[in-house]
């Protein structure tokens, strides 16, 4: 008993969606070794069912690693850097470099080109420096006491931020507002 055309298309889309979603779940459950197998299964299913995949998925090492087949997730299983190199003509070429953390496969993608000439300044690496704060004489003398006082202050703040303390403060402010109200009866009593 076969499927009609509509049922077949519905099964095909659900099957392909399942495999594609499974590829994206594997890195989050720390199973990168299965990603290559599932990626190959996904590609074979798309070929078998004659589905043309978008360029973002098919392109070599853009969405998936070209070596192990894992889905690239920046900061999780992929390191991404912007690399500047000098061209033979003296122009600066900037490429985006994807490095798979799982298998160390590197893919360079062209980013842009600057018309400025290469110089020794551009080859030097930038190192950020911040001014070092000068310690106060009172801080250095009472360094242990300052830390203890800070800890005591934090403990007091934690105690003051409990729900019962907040509600009691709110009641006190409401009572003060009620006492400060100017009513005719209050004026006649005095």
Keywords:
190 residues, alpha+beta, 47% helix, 8 helices, 2 domains, flat
Structure description:
Strand 1 (78-86) and strand 2 (91-100) form a beta hairpin. The chain has 190 residues and is α+β, with helices and mostly antiparallel strands. The chain is flat and about 95 Å long. Helix 1 runs antiparallel to helix 2. The model has no long low-confidence stretch (mean pLDDT 76). It folds into 2 domains: 5-123, no CATH class; 149-181. The longest helix has 21 residues, at 5-25. The chain is built from 8 helices and 3 strands, in the order αααβββααααα. Strands 1-2-3 form a 3-stranded antiparallel beta sheet, with no helix packed on it. It has helices at residues 5-25, 35-48, 55-58, 120-123, 137-141, 143-160, 163-179, 184-189; strands at 78-86, 91-100, 106-117. Pfam families: Rpr2 (PF04032). One of its GO terms (cellular component) is nucleolar ribonuclease P complex. InterPro entries: Rpr2/Snm1/Rpp21. It comes from Lachancea fermentati (Zygosaccharomyces fermentati).
Short description:
The chain has 190 residues and is α+β, with helices and mostly antiparallel strands.
